[in-house]
Amino acid sequence: MAFAAGLVIVAGVAIGAWTRKAPEPVSQVPQQPSEVVLSISGESGARPRYAVPDFITRGGDAETLEAARLMGSVLWDDLAFEREFYMVPRDTYRTIPAARSFTEIAFDRWRELGADGLVIGSVERTGPNTYRVEVRLYDVKSRRSVSAREYTGSASNPRLYAHTAADDIHQQQRALRGAARSRLTFSSDRDGERVANAVSPRDVKEIYISDYDGANQRRVTVTRKLNIMPRWSPDARAIAYTSYRRDFPDIYISLIYEGTLENPTKGRGQNWLPAWSPDGARICFTSTRDGNSELYVMDRDGSNLTRLTNNPAIDTTPTWSPSGTQIAFVSDRNGSPQIFIIDADGLNLRRITSESWCDRPTWSPAPFNEIAYASRTGPGYDIRIYDLATQERRQLTSGEGSNESPAYAPNGRHLAFMSTRTGRKQIFVMGRDGQDVRQITTVGNNYTPDWSK
Amino acid sequence: MRIQSVSSAALMGLVVASLALGGCPSKKPPVARPLPPPAPATTPTPPPAPAPSGAIQESPVVASPSIPEDPMAARSVDDLNRDSPLRAAFFEYDSAELTAEARAALDANAATLKKYRTWAVTIEGHCDERGTAEYNLALGERRAAAAHAYVVSLGVTADRLKTVSYGKEFPFDPGHDEAAYAKNRRAQFVITAK
Asked: Which CATH number is A7-174 given?
């Protein structure tokens, strides 16, 4: 074998417009002990420098050529996103002859460019709508492949091959769960439609989804009504949200692969802001069914309803702890809206903020133990994080427009949020240190993001 | 409800008639009592003989050219909402307390709703854009509930009223200054049936 020292894993990927499955190994080279991982290191403790040129095509048609370029570009972006590697800019590769196969790689030239790791991929069309993609990671110094994986699937979404390869490289090289295959959901008025039969001109908002990097933005609801505050189910197959499709707020669940709709609250009172329990079995939400804004918990199908709060003040905007044993929420029981934590049985209430106005608490996934929220800092809001262990708080944004509605990436290393920094309301993502801000949406106004688990 | 709406046309005609003839609008439904016939000079044909006591006599009253039509009765629900006889109640920042002005608007709305007893109304709670979208759903509902409780206390039956919070999703004025905010912090009455 050309890459005798490397791991060889053959994986199949089912890729389609509406299917996203984790790659399942269809066969494995039997002698590979999975514990042995050759890790590429950088010079004297610096982050390793990675290069990702365009993928190789074998007798490619125009579509395959474009897919090969796109996969290289997307994989570079995916690897840059986690900031575990220094990514050598792609516009510096031009002088290096492109590899035509895995056996003709100009390692000395990549070495001159300072690359420690080199990702070479190939795309081969295997049918009218199928690709076979192979991705190898080389240690440039030793010229050895430290990992090689093969993916097969649909040709309709080349980006998914790159995302899967990026997640595999992060897992193998850094034991890190990458976010490349995670997705966002948000509410948008981009269609410019107006609510039907409204008393005054009122903009429709519909639920959208996109890849984590903003690609593949798709509309989920088609109601010509208000649909807001979507939340991914933990298995990322469903989105719960607040919809005015019957002209009052109620909780609906769209199963995006089946194309079906559930309405667990069944119009009993006004219901909004659903939040999934970590196991996806229950939903905490706000309702005024008993006359005041209180928190309730129900099973996903609407059964086993229990009331969690009982206070004449507003109690709203719940979020579950990763263990499912606690719920953080917003209450104005002491005056302005502040963030409180309560045990999932409704006991042991405590307050964690004393600021001007706080909303949309979002509990981080483990291993972080913190709550992000929007805090009024002037005319607008900024994203802050409260560390539950140290009880310290830090601010991630600093007054560039208003910054609201934070949501954690599944690995806890990034947050999506809404910001007005470029004028209209748009979705952005940033690192949990507030750096590396990226704009996800540009069309219309876009609100209240959530990140799949 | 259906029975109510059938009798309403007759009731409204009687209320209008009594107004036009100089009477006070009665608080009680004027059923089973024949009205005085209109003056003979204004009618080309003599009125029919009075109906037996206990029957409602309405055709001469409606036919009389001297009695103006109630403009509300002729308008569709959409037309009514476009230039609504029901006023919005406005609120202070992050508050659902009814101010004196809000009470005055709701007093007028309650009188209108008691006059037009078949109207069904949704009271919408709205907020200005300064609060967060999530919390404002609850704040808007609190405003709608405050307006609802007040008009019910004035005798409007609760089964004609619904409340819906729209948070800050549907501002009345898209501006970003206090003048716009003041218009957007409101309980808005929308007629849904008549």
From this structure: 3.40.50.10070
